[in-house]
Design a protein that fits this description.
The protein folds into two domains: about 15-70, Winged helix-like DNA-binding domain superfamily/Winged helix DNA-binding domain (Arc Repressor Mutant, subunit A, Orthogonal Bundle); about 80-260, Beta-Lactamase (2-Layer Sandwich). α5 runs antiparallel to α10 (about 235-260) and α7 (about 150-155) packs across α9. The strands form two sheets. A six-stranded antiparallel sheet has the order 5-4-3-8-7-6, with helices on both faces. The chain has a two-stranded antiparallel sheet with strand order 1-2. It is built from ten helices and eight strands. β3 (about 105-115) and β4 (about 115-125) form a beta hairpin. It has helices at about 15-30, 35-40, 45-60, 75-85, 85-105, 130-140, 150-155, 160-165, 180-195, 235-260, and strands at about 60-65, 70, 105-115, 115-125, 140-145, 200, 210-215, 220-230.
Amino acid sequence: MTAGSTGNDGPRRIKSVQTATDVINVIKQQQGGTLAEITADLELTKATVHTYLQTLVDCGFVTRDGDQYRLGFQFVTIGEHVRNETDLYMAGHNEVDELAERTGEYTHLIAEERGREVVLYESRGEFAVAMDYHLRMRETPQHLHDTAAGKAILAHLPATRRDEIIANLEFERQTANTITDAAELRETLADIRDRGYALNDEEEIRGMRAVGAPVLGPTETVVGSVSVTGPTSRLQGERFHSAVPKQVIETANLIEVALETAQFDR
């Protein structure tokens, strides 16, 4: 067995790379910390952690100010590059801005990666609320089963991929309305495929609702979703069940046309 690999039971991995990502994730979770604080959350010696930190500082991924270590802006530049190379973002962010202006609510452009939803872009309408919640959404990929955007994607994934994701869900209850059963989720996803959009009726956060629609790529495979999120006081009745769904579906369709015709600037 080569040093740093995992043996013959699976794909080979480089242990030092895994350790470096562990250090980075601890710094993220702690929102910065001292050598001692970072080491406390790792099964490593202080000397080893110091070596990794210094290397990450040299590479620009971590900055040091006195005895405090924080993540560097290198992550911002890499993140911007990744996003700008994503066709869904380039085709969709202007449409998501317009949707926010028309609805007055928070709007999101979502992609799926590793069975979770990732916020590619968000726009804040005039009456948008819950800024802290949307900040957490951007920083931490969410499960797909308890958000409108996530369910819209999950419903339209190929069956084998959908089954794989559902099999790995923990179905943690967030509110009294959260779906916590695989059979119920499958029925809900079938309904979403039939009507073309997904609803989140206080399933993730009490007092908040959302509407999401899938975005299909040129090969008719789902590449992401668009959603509108707002308080139950505004997303209710006909607006929740008809008006906003129509607006979200229209926005998703406009993004699909842009993807199909490559009508967006790089």
